[in-house]
Amino acid sequence: MEHHSFTWFSWIPYPDQIETCIAVSIALMLFAVVVHGRLRNTEQAIEPDDGMSARNIAEATVELISGLAENVIGHGGSKFVPLLAAFFVYILIGNLLGLIPGFSPPTSNSGVTFGLGFVAFLAYNAAGFREHGAKYGKQFLGPVIFLAPLMLMIELVSHAFRPMSLGIRLAANMSADHTVVEVFTEMTNLLIPVLFLGLGAFVSLIQAFVFTMLSAIYISLAVSHDH
Q1: Residue 191 needs a FRET pair 20 to 30 A away by CA distance; which of 81, 95, 158, 220 works?
Q2: Would 147 be classed as within a structural domain?
């Protein structure tokens, strides 16, 4: 008999991950409002908060993503920080929310992850056209003219596969991770579930970082002049 886990959204006639996806979006918007409210005051914007606060968490996240953008994309990487930070925070919160009983992680739904991959696909191609103009198309033609038709086909297939690979990797890893956590939580008592929850949190962080890193790499390749 098929086992159906309890979720808080079971009464809604849509996939549980979709409702959780909406819940994550609302939570992040509320978080942004709180942080924005704290930064509107000039004195509060200058003086750091004591201890762990919404503002400190937001600043630490921005610093992390800024460092990633600078190291991977290089000069001009700062303008991609909002996009990369949005990827990282949204995926991380979605992953972690799936560890809470009654929530199904939105990142285990291929529709959600393919959507994120498609946004990354549009973003890095838009960045490439903005940086190079029509010359961006030369990246698809290879180094020598007589190989251009073959290279064009290869590059088109490669670029088309990128959003799918981002989505499949994220959805498969998070679905497997949360299934393992759920199974061991139901089978064992206190200690083992805590260990697997810790492992699940670590995997959630790694998968959010990997998606963000790969998106930054694709942007870097698109805007690079070394072609």
Answers
A1: 95
A2: yes
